[in-house]
Specification:
Helix content is 15%, strand content 32%. By secondary structure, it is α+β, with helices and mostly antiparallel strands. Strands 1, 2, 3, 4, 5 and 6 form a six-stranded antiparallel beta sheet that branches.
Length: 150
């Protein structure tokens, strides 16, 4: 299974009063990685895929260990754990670097493609599905290591 890798810089403003990255900031890291992942297929090569919009239906985050500010970026690894007709689930691990065993966060997000003009969800296109399947891990777990419901 292929994973999308996103190098995410840490900003001084990401810190909280306790000296580590605030829990809410991790949602921004996931968002940056998700946008980078989903828009790799889109307008740059003339494809309309994912350019119409999407909405987040759900986030699930497990905070494994604290992350303190440093100059080196973290790596957000992303992959797909589920594709349905009108949604996908992306799993993530935020790590020290590619191949590192030092995991700070495991998370998953349910994303629903959205038609902005009609203001309603839409189905995943064949092109989008083909792209997503390259990153599909159907090994039966989500980003938090929990078994997926059948």
């Amino acid at each position: 299974m292929t994973r999308h890798l996103y190098s995410c810089p840490l900003r001084w403003s990401d810190m909280d009063a306790f000296g580590h990255v605030n829990n809410v900031v991790f949602l921004r890291y996931l968002e940056e990685a998700r946008i980078d992942f989903m828009f790799r297929l889109a307008p740059g090569d003339g494809s309309p895929s994912f350019s119409g919009g999407s909405v987040v239906a759900r986030h699930e985050i497990d905070y494994v260990r604290p992350l303190v500010h440093r100059h080196e970026p973290v790596v957000v690894e992303s992959w797909v754990t589920k594709i349905t007709a009108a949604s996908l689930t992306i799993a993530y691990e935020i790590k020290d670097g590619e191949g590192s065993d030092e995991v700070y966060v495991r998370a998953s997000t349910v994303v629903v493609p959205f038609n902005l003009e009609a203001q309603r969800p839409r189905r995943i296109t064949a092109e989008e599905k083909t792209y997503l399947q390259r990153y599909l891990d159907d090994g039966g777990t989500d980003g938090g290591g929990e078994a997926l419901a059948a």
